[in-house]
Amino acid sequence: MPTVSDTYIENRQRVQPTHTNNYESAHGGNVVKWMDEIGAMSAMRAAGETCVTAKINGLDFKRPVPQGDTCIVESYVYAVGRTSLRTRIRAYRESPRTGERELTTESYFVFVSVDADGTPTPVPELTVEGDRCRELRDAALAAEPDEER
Fold it and tell me: What predicted TM-score, i.e. pTM, was given to this entire model?
């Protein structure tokens, strides 16, 4: 059975001119795409199957990610249902020269595990072992939008 920590993924994307809007910051659609891709990878680690996006809940853009900065996307699965996986995903802007990091976007995605025919398939239980797993799960549950509870 996978643990919460097993599903933790952090990825970096340098924000290039082709990723930006008229304000020289990452286009919101690009940030959501990066979050969706990394979130799906976390879900697949937990499910052991292909996972598709079923719901995006509480997508909050707090700050822009300027061109030239790095967009860091952090994702992990913190709870599962029969075929669904609840995933916390956050994006940060990071200065490549100083390493200064700031939260820019956060959301909760629900993915569904599917087989080769696209039919929802059961997922294994998610275990919580050790302090790191508990910290991740508890932080996600504490900040989770009410409609997910």
Answer: 0.94
